[in-house]
Automatic annotation (TrEMBL):
Annotated protein name in UniProt: SsrA-binding protein
Lineage: Bacteria, Pseudomonadati, Pseudomonadota, Gammaproteobacteria, Pseudomonadales
Biological function: Required for rescue of stalled ribosomes mediated by trans-translation. Binds to transfer-messenger RNA (tmRNA), required for stable association of tmRNA with ribosomes. tmRNA and SmpB together mimic tRNA shape, replacing the anticodon stem-loop with SmpB. tmRNA is encoded by the ssrA gene; the 2 termini fold to resemble tRNA(Ala) and it encodes a 'tag peptide', a short internal open reading frame. During trans-translation Ala-aminoacylated tmRNA acts like a tRNA, entering the A-site of stalled ribosomes, displacing the stalled mRNA.
Predominant location: cytoplasm
Coiled coil spans: none
NCBIfam families: PRK05422.1, smpB
């Protein structure tokens, strides 16, 4: 009987800046068309999504601005481009929804995270609406007040 391989699990990279800059309206799960050296680098956790975004053109979705650092040992015969555009694999229905929504003013399509799903690498993309500066400050105030409440609850439990 063949031995079962253990698949890697969990997040590879997250785009926390996108959560700060946008209101997330709807999330989609997309596959990624990758080269062999990119998969090896992702297994090592060498990916960044900080300035990445999704470009929709000609009925296809492309991931731009993501950075996958090539391993020195993985790709000796291939010239590795760490910031190349990568194709996102989505259903036609999902692409249609994204195309229609991005045409509206204020909406953008951003990459939120890269993660493993069994042996496949998936990219979570979102339809997002841009935040104004006062929205960002308001979000920080709410987060700080929640943190203060949690501290007060914890310290009250220790006094008893």
């Amino acid at each position: 009987m063949a031995k079962q391989k253990k698949h890697p699990q969990g997040n590879i990279a997250q785009n926390k800046k996108a959560l700060h800059d946008y209101f997330i309206e709807q999330k989609f799960e997309a596959g990624l068309a990758l080269a062999g050296w990119e998969v090896k680098s992702l297994r090592a956790g060498k990916a960044q999504l900080v300035d990445s975004y999704v470009l929709l053109k000609d009925g296809e979705a492309w991931l731009l601005g993501s950075h996958i650092t090539p391993l020195t040992t993985a790709s000796t015969h291939v010239i590795a481009d760490p910031t190349r555009t990568r194709k996102l694999l989505l259903h036609k229905r999902e692409l249609g929804k994204l195309f229609g929504a991005v045409q509206q003013k204020g909406y953008a399509c951003v990459a939120l995270s890269l993660y493993w799903k069994k042996h496949l690498i998936k990219c979570e993309i979102a339809l997002a609406k841009g935040k104004k500066e006062y929205d960002k400050r308001d979000t920080e105030k709410v987060r700080d007040s929640d943190r203060e409440i949690q501290r007060a609850i914890r310290s009250k439990g220790k006094e008893d």
